[in-house]
Amino acid sequence: MTAPTGPRIAPLPPDQWSEEVRHSIAALRPPDAKHELRRSKGGPKGLNVLGTLAVHPPLMHAFHQFNGHILYSTTLTARQRELLILRVASQRDAEYEWEQHVILAADAGLGEDEIARIRQGPDAPGWSTHDAAMLRAVDELIVDAIVTDHTWSVLAESMDDQQLMDLVFTVGAYDLLAMAFRSFGIELDADLPRS
Asked: Exposure winner among 37, 42, 96, 187, fewest CB in 10 A?
């Protein structure tokens, strides 16, 4: 299945964002509100995503409330979260999601070799047992919407129930975003590098 060759929903430029949109963006910020959205020259990062979601402010707000937990209140480490998100992006061939999260993964401590190896999957040499099980959980959730007993038991050796719940919801959230980004034809922002 090929992705659209251009945007199916035109992103709204920032000068057309309503107060409701700006409030929705604030819902995605960390609870301490000390961090700004990552910025590029001249504006916030992710303009194509934010501009597309700005077309539907109530949906944007609801999803940002949920995604704010995934990004800032999760019981997973930033490294674990990014490992999961990049595997979803790889499995779903979600270029926008991949390119955005390669940057975040590097910030979270994943090395270039690890980021490249995510595309190879859980059986690639070099993964710890736990990291391989996390990648395998992504694959199982995407294919069958369930983590197998074996993978669950490996993960449960070092993760508590809340972490396991956050794992499943992180995969689900970013699988949904991959579907949306690809279906809406969201293009890479000019400042995003291409791998």
From this structure: 42
